[in-house]
Specification:
By secondary structure, the protein is of the alpha+beta class. Helix content is 45%, strand content 21%. The structure holds ligand C2E and calcium ion (2 copies).
Amino acid sequence: MSLKTQITLRTAVVLPFVMIFLFTMGVMVFTQKQSYKEMVSDISARQLASLTDNVHQSLSDFLEKPFHANLSLSHNIGYHKLYEPGNLSKVQDYILYKFSDHFTAVPQLDVIGFGSEDGNYVGFRKEANNGYTLMVQDERTQDQLVIYRGSKISEDIRSVISGYDPRVRPWYTPVANEKKAVWSPIYANADERQEITLSALAPIYADNEFKAVIVSDIKINTFNAFLKNLKDKTDASVYIIDQQQRLVAHSGGGSVVSWGTGKTHKGQRLLATESANPVIRESANYVDQLHLIDDIGVQRFKFTLDGEQYFNQITPYEDKHGLTWFIGMSIPESNLLGELPKNQRDSWLLGLTLSCIGIIAGLIAFNRVTQPITSTADAAKQLAKGDWDSSMPKSGNIYETSMLVEAFNEMANNLKASFQQLQSQLTYDSLTKLYSREGFIDAAQKNAATEKGTLYLVGIDRFRDINDSLGHYNGDQLLIISAARLRGTLPSDYLLARTGGDEFAIYAPNVTQEEDVQLLANRLVQTFASPFAMESESVVVKVSIGVVHVSNDQDITSWLRNSSIALSNAKQDKTRVSIYSPEMGNASRHRTKMLARLNKAIELQQFEPFYQPIIDLESGTTIGAEALARWVTDEGIISPLEFIPLAEETGLIYDIGKQILHKSCRDTAIAIESGKWSEDFSIHVNLSVDQLSERGFIGLVKNTLSDTKLPPKNLTLEITESRIIDNDPTIIENMLTLKALGISIAIDDFGTGYSSLAYLHKLPFDCLKIDRSFVSKLDKENLDSSIVAAIVNITKGFKVSLVAEGVETQQQADLLKQLQCPQAQGFLYSRPVPFDQWPTDLSNAQQNAKTKQNTEAKESIS
Ligand code: C2E
Ligand code: CA
Ligand code: CA
């Protein structure tokens, strides 16, 4: 997998989708909000304007009517000359008449009074029961202010106040000064109701002379009720303030006069910023801080209180009779648009929910679409891990993914089939249909992990030779028949395998007793006892068996290795059946080590020929030499007896032989060239049959001769008699070819092999070497009946030379001479020596030998 971060198919498709959705939602919400804001400010402005207009209109109505009433009173009193100094009874009647008959439509009128230049006063107060109470101060009341319970002068007096002077009242002076109808300043009544009062004032003239003031008190509280009512209907908070920002009226309920708790004194009018109503208070604060009443015209502003947004307008209210007030209006946002914001929120919520449902539905649908792809990817991953049993993906309903999934499944099935085929190829031997080595290990692991038993490894002796001589086809047939025989004789619960070219492994569960083990081994030997009928001829084979007692403390590969060691042992010792013991393992380990060293030695060219002279018995001259391999190591010289058998077994003999052959030929060529050895000197080089049966061997010999410039006539190749197997066409062929090249062939260790003398004539050879064992057995008495004598006689007919090996004593040499054996070789003349230690005076070898013998004899005598 690359280092790039990877995202899933699902993310790749869903992410942009969700992003686009979120972006669209965002833009929508933004524009909505924007247009909502505009709409809100638009609507608030209109609403504020219309409500303020309403208030403005009502307020001017509220003030205008009493003002006009008062004006008409002043006009009529003056016009009809109702004022008579000292007695106010005409004015009294007129006021009562107007108050109770004409001004019923002006309910805000509270008190209508009349104060004259000469300090008299008459007035009526409207009571809660719609009655009127009379207040008089003139001659009739002896210039005292008398307040009656009724509307006439009677005995029913509520109270009498002396020293009352209307001319010092706050309603009198403005008119007295200005001589025109005006509003009084607002003032709080001194009574218990703490009501604030505004009075319409008008002057009264008689004969163009200012005579009196008519005053109509207005209870502003009634306007509070109007505002309260408006607030209940529209939720708009309204307040009216004067230029000092003191409350005139408001919709907040409660008094506009201080009860003495705040900064203001008891009875003083409250500032709007001191209102008990938080909205009004907040709005008034804004007005105060921003000095909005100093500016002319309508001002708008907004603020937020307790999470609610309020839109405000402050509007000046002026009338021509000297009032300068301001109408403050504050409406909450929620009120402006009614249910709209909530509905909008609801619809957004609904939209969001629907979109979420849509996305989820989309995801589910998309999942269904990608499910086959995802599960295919998973299955592919499983396959890559080697899990062949994982479930296969199912194709969905979409054409392309179905194609993909089907193609994948087909591919996976093909892979599975090839894998199974491969597995069975690994598990079973294709030739015999028995288990292969791997299959055997597998089956044994499954089968016999816990139980005890015995493992037999059966090897066919010299199968390679059989293969070579009968051909591979017949070799295969032999193996097939062998497998069939084993199958036929062994119980079905025994595991059977061909673990190597000519090796069969048998695992016998529960065979543990000594006799049973032996019995089964014998039976296996018997299985191979009868001849194998091939196409042309029938073949007898022998088998060797390695046996291992199996316990579960070791694994199967160890059993197999041990059985192989036991089998090698059986073959080496020719015991047929060998039961594994740990010592064999040691020997085998030694072998393994040795093998490694041999390989290294080949690389380092550590193999050297030592030369042992071959003597002409008649003349005593050296006519040749045998090259004998030595392994020259730093630790010393190792004998061929120690490494040749292993080298032959493992095929390394070919390389070792190559080194010996090359060095021998080179040494000989040099020796002949330098005159050290004679022109017809014969160098004997030992050969393994394995070398001879190698296809490239002839080429190797030719190259060696031409490389070293040694003439072929100087070379003799020695082949051990017992190793030349009958009928091998390659060996005989090669021997013939070598001969044809001019090279001589010697049969080594003659007499020890099993080939009969009768067979000898089939072999192409030039020289026989009589084995040392026959030479050592020579004695004077039975000389003529000795094997050496027989060999000499037989070979008289052949034109071959004879060499007697292992001549150690002069006596042996003499007897050989007597038997007319022509040549000899042995320690008597010289041990094998390195080339540079070759004695220079070997021509006199016999002479030397004689002298040596005599010396030894003398020594022994003495
Ligand atoms: P061989 O070919 O029969 O060689 C003769 C062996 O007898 C040599 O032993 C030699 O040292 C020994 N011998 C010679 N004279 C006497 C004697 O008077 N008395 C006794 N007791 N022994 C004597 P070596 O060198 O240890 O070789 C043993 C065998 O190793 C050889 O037997 C030969 O079969 C094999 N061999 C040696 N060199 C080679 C080689 O280069 N190639 C192959 N394939 N085999 C070799
Ligand atoms: Ca030899
Ligand atoms: Ca020999």
